[in-house]
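Hi R.,

As promised on Friday, here is the backbone we talked about, encoded as structure tokens. Could you run it through your design pipeline when you get a chance and send me back a sequence?
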């Protein structure tokens, strides 16, 4: 038997323990060699005749070829969605509910397969895609199935009228879950959809198309056009779009808002964030440390609401920093298909470069870096969990969204200073407060300019709970009753 390797970090903490063996997930992902566009209920070849490769950030191996949709393909998708809109919007809510319910059940049936595909294509740890992304995606369809026949009760005395064809563009950090956030409320309210997944993570959307076929969803109700930014731009600018729903970067969000000005199209934007996670000296510290770790390292930090700016009360700053360093040594970075992995692969080379650049800026601007010793896989895109202490508010790492496993630690003395520092950002998507005092939680949550404020927890999501931002984090809400209102007009 080959000698087992000893993990130096574990050895340091717990003495001379043996390293765990790898425990790779073995369920098959059933990824086709090539995917066409999903238009009018069928997979079709792109009119561009072009395909692009989808690779796995886990090891840079090619997974599949994905059709590149041009303007004519996007137009075909919109025509199909416009034709499907009439019968779909007239269908009684209870009938639409049955389709949504069926979709949710089919996704549950194939949960393992979708989790593996999501991890292979996007790089997130299998334990997250298995326990979070796929179950939450199904939960969104279940939740909206419940609403479809109760739309008259959303706003009593008023009726929700669907908008028409919705153009949707989603990012690469939660590919299947963002798809569910977008499609489920649109269908529940009687709209039809043209959706573009992100270039690096189209596979689960295309696999999801087969679920729509199995559910017997009428052709054209949901269409998928794949490609990069140019395809996204064709989706946004198509004249048949009644509304655009976008999740992604603030820069692209602003460009979309400019492009739609004066067109009469509705728009919701879910953009970036730079959330403050605020820890007071009366907080349960070990619990807070777990919340900080989850807040920044969940999904490699590729999370718009990540707790990327830690604000710690000065009297406990040293204690928290040393507890965080100890905890960081126990995080396992590496193969996302391994069930023991905490931090998987960075989604793309481009994103890895962006993280590296911002970390280099943090060092050159004078912040103090800490990274635990860890061996990263040779192939693929990986970045170790990273802490920066001695961060000041003007540092780029305190202002810009890094979208990676990098935490910036700042301190405060009074609650007023915490609020001022937390709100000192262009963004306003989420925040966290850790304290023993209920009254302080209530006061902080009214003063923090953030769409979601978590108290003594972080990164908790539920389909019933609306999610969305202030300021440059965008506008409109997803989830809950509020999310439905963004897909309808009130009569
Ligand atoms: P992005 O460019 O905004 O991508 C989001 C989606 O928009 C993707 O489907 C993208 O296509 C598409 N897109 C790109 N240019 C477009 C255009 N001109 N018109 C319409 N659609 C367009 O974001 P990114 O470049 O992937 O990531 C950059 C940064 O954005 C990250 O570092 C992070 O800070 C932030 N981000 C935020 C979120 C969030 O959840 N709020 C998610 C992802 C990224 P392709 O990807 O196929 O090019
Ligand atoms: Mg990929």
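Update: got your reply. Pasting your designed sequence below so it's all in one thread:
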């Amino acid at each position: 038997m080959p000698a087992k390797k000893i993990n130096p970090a574990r050895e340091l903490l717990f003495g001379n323990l043996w390293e765990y063996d790898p425990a790779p997930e073995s369920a098959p992902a059933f990824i086709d060699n090539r995917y066409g566009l999903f238009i009018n209920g069928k997979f079709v070849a792109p009119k561009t005749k072009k395909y692009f490769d989808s690779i796995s950030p886990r090891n840079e191996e090619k997974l599949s070829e994905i059709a590149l949709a041009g303007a004519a393909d996007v137009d075909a998708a919109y025509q199909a969605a416009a034709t499907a809109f009439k019968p779909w919007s007239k269908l009684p809510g209870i009938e639409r509910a049955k389709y949504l319910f069926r979709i949710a059940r089919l996704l549950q049936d194939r949960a393992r397969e979708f989790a593996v595909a999501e991890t292979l294509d996007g790089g997130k740890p299998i334990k997250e895609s298995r326990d979070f992304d796929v179950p939450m995606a199904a939960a969104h369809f279940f939740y909206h199935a419940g609403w479809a026949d109760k739309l008259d009760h959303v706003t009593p005395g008023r009726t929700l009228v669907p908008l028409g064809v919705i153009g949707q563009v989603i990012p690469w950090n939660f590919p299947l879950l963002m798809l569910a956030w977008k499609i489920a409320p649109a269908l529940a309210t009687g709209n039809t959809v043209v959706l573009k997944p992100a270039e690096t993570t189209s596979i689960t959307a295309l696999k999801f198309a087969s679920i729509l076929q199995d559910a017997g969803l009428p052709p054209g109700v949901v269409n998928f056009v794949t490609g990069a930014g140019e395809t996204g731009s064709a989706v946004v600018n198509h004249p048949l779009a009644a509304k655009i729903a976008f999740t992604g970067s603030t820069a692209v969000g602003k460009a979309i808002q400019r492009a739609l000005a004066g067109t009469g199209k509705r728009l919701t934007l879910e953009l970036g964030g730079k959330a403050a996670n605020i820890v007071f000296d009366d907080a349960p510290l070990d619990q807070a440390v777990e919340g900080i770790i989850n807040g920044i390292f969940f999904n490699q930090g590729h999370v718009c609401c990540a707790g990327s700016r830690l604000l710690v009360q000065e009297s406990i700053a040293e204690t928290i920093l040393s507890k965080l360093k100890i905890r960081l040594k126990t995080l396992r970075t590496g193969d996302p298909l391994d069930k023991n992995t905490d931090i998987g692969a960075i989604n793309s080379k481009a994103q890895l470069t962006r993280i590296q650049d911002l970390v280099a800026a943090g060092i050159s601007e004078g912040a103090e870096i800490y990274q635990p010793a860890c061996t990263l896989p040779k192939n693929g895109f990986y970045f170790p969990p990273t802490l920066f202490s001695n961060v000041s508010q003007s540092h780029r790492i305190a202002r810009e969204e890094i979208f990676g496993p990098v935490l910036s630690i700042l301190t405060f003395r009074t609650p007023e200073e915490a609020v001022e520092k937390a709100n000192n950002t262009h963004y306003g998507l989420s925040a966290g407060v850790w304290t023993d005092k209920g009254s302080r939680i209530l006061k902080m949550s009214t003063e923090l300019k953030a769409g979601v404020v978590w108290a003594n927890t972080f990164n908790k999501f539920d389909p019933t709970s609306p999610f969305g931002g202030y300021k440059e984090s965008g506008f409109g809400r997803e989830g809950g009753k509020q999310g439905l209102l963004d897909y309808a007009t009130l009569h």
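One thing I noticed while checking it: The mean pLDDT is 96.

Thanks again,
M.
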